[in-house]
Amino acid sequence: MTRNDALLGRLEAVVGRKGLIRDPGEMAPHMVEPRGLFRGQARCVVKPASTREVAEVVRLCAEAGVAVVPQGGNTGLVGGNVPFEHGGEVVLSLARMNRVRAVDPVNDTITVEAGCILQKVQEAAEAADRLFPLSLGAEGTCQIGGNLSTNAGGIQVLRYGNMRALVLGLEVVLPDGRVWNGLRALRKDNTGFDLKQLFIGGEGTLGVITAAVLRLFPRPKAKTTAFAAVRDVAAAVELLGRVRAASGEAVTSFELIPRFSLDISLKHIAGIEDPLGDAHPWYVLIELWSEVANSGLREALETVLAQAHEDGLVPDATIAANEAQAQSFWRIREAMVEAQKFEGGSIKHDVSVPISAVAAFIERSCAAVESLIPGVRAIPFGHIGDGNIHLNLSQPEGADRDAFLARWAEVNRRVHDIVAELGGSISAEHGIGRLKLEENVHYKSPVEIELMQRIKTALDPDNLMNPGKVVPGGG
Ligand SMILES: Cc1cc2nc3c(=O)[nH]c(=O)nc-3n(C[C@H](O)[C@H](O)[C@H](O)COP(=O)(O)OP(=O)(O)OC[C@H]3O[C@@H](n4cnc5c(N)ncnc54)[C@H](O)[C@@H]3O)c2cc1C
């Protein structure tokens, strides 16, 4: 019996026959990430069903010197979720750890296992007349453990914060197989380092998250959604400030949409309608929520938009008359990425800058990419209220797709230089994984990279927990 067979035998003894996948066909979906940028191989996919089983699997792998790749819903976009090509790793899927352990409406918390699908957690919160506010395009597939490990953001960060802000406690299996029970449900706990923050956004490099205590909120009783044309990006930022001043924390989403994006959505995606009569270069989708039924939000927004119109910031705007119309505004936002696929290859950026620098970033980066690739079609869009811009670049019309995509790294570097000059981040939402590992080392100071390496070595001295992701040092 080979050493590999011996390890697989021990793993099967822990998770049972249905918890160990070796059939190449069944393993295949676990070996590639959504955009197909990274494709790997593994010894097996193991699916433990309890924290004890996760701990035992990790301990056995550590004992055998075999690296573990934690995997949630496999929707991550930077390659942290899939194994390397060499095939020597074990993929540890959390899919069977999908129980809601407890809901505490008095404490406004829900305790869930890491393999719970995000949508299931939203539904469990709703059943208790509460809101779990994390919301993103992949919510029907991604898991809480993956959301935590990538510190996921999405469309309501402006009001509720990203995943880091939504967690009170974690349970984690450490790289040596020990369990850290940090499942506290406390809003105040000043007893030393806040260890859970190391694992949030850690992309599975420091341990396997097995459960979490998440914060719940009152459900909104009133929503107001507007679609407004804005003179330019600076006007969008100015409008954000005015809407916040008029409605306080009610601003839940504030999304930037360029005209080109609406044009290609109208062209390629069924059911999209232009809510305004004339074409304008930029739009914002604004949504305000209140826990109070007669909140006066609509009137407040009307007043702000009317004044902004008078001041030349907003040439035209409409407020949704009902839920169906609000949904039709959101369909425009959601169709953007899909519509781009019909326009050939696209080079992507997921960056953030201070909100005060958003207009300068978009102006400078669009000019820079145009000078690099004349005719490139820039689509800067997204969560402008968080300073997070997804700068997607569609290839020039009629250009060769492969030749365009071959310039990905060169274009990224040019855009990221501008981000760095403006004090921004080269990864606002999706993380580092494999895709941005070198880029991260390039932009972070040597001191910061060394601190990250020291933390990694302290928790995972043998570099067996998702090696070669986030922190430089082999895979
Ligand atoms: C259509 C679409 C829309 C998206 N929209 C957004 C968005 O708006 N905002 C946003 O932030 N992201 C977005 N994403 C990216 C992605 O959905 C998120 O990063 C998500 O949080 C990943 O969750 P997952 O369960 O799929 O994790 P995976 O992809 O399986 O894993 C992601 C990383 O976390 C690690 N990991 C997973 N589970 C665990 C665990 N239990 N313990 C330790 N490590 C673990 C993996 O090793 C990997 O490094 C989107 C992706 C898609 C495909």
Structure in words:
- This protein has 475 residues and is α+β, with helices and mostly antiparallel strands.
- The chain has four domains: 3-93, Uridine Diphospho-n-acetylenolpyruvylglucosamine Reductase, domain 2, CATH 3.30.43.10; 100-218, Uridine Diphospho-n-acetylenolpyruvylglucosamine Reductase, domain 3, CATH 3.30.465; 222-341, Alpha-Beta Plaits; 344-421, Alpha-Beta Plaits (2-Layer Sandwich), CATH 3.30.70.
- It has helices at 3-15, 24-27, 51-64, 118-127, 144-149, 157-160, 196-199, 233-247, 259-268, 297-310, 323-340, 358-372, 401-405, 408-421, 437-443, 446-459; strands spanning 20-21, 44-46, 68-71, 90-93, 100-104, 109-113, 130-131, 167-173, 179-182, 208-215, 217-218, 222-230, 251-258, 282-290, 316-319, 346-347, 350-352, 377-381, 388-394.
- A hairpin with a 6-residue loop joins β18 (377-381) and β19 (388-394).
- α1 (3-15) packs antiparallel against α3 (51-64).
- The model has no long low-confidence stretch (mean pLDDT 96).
- Bound molecules: flavin-adenine dinucleotide.
- Residues 34, 69-77, 80-81, 94, 114, 136-138, 142-143, 145-147, 149-150, 152-154, 203-204, 208-209, 429-430, 433, 466, 469 line the site of flavin-adenine dinucleotide (FAD).
- Flavin-adenine dinucleotide binds next to β3, α5 and β10.
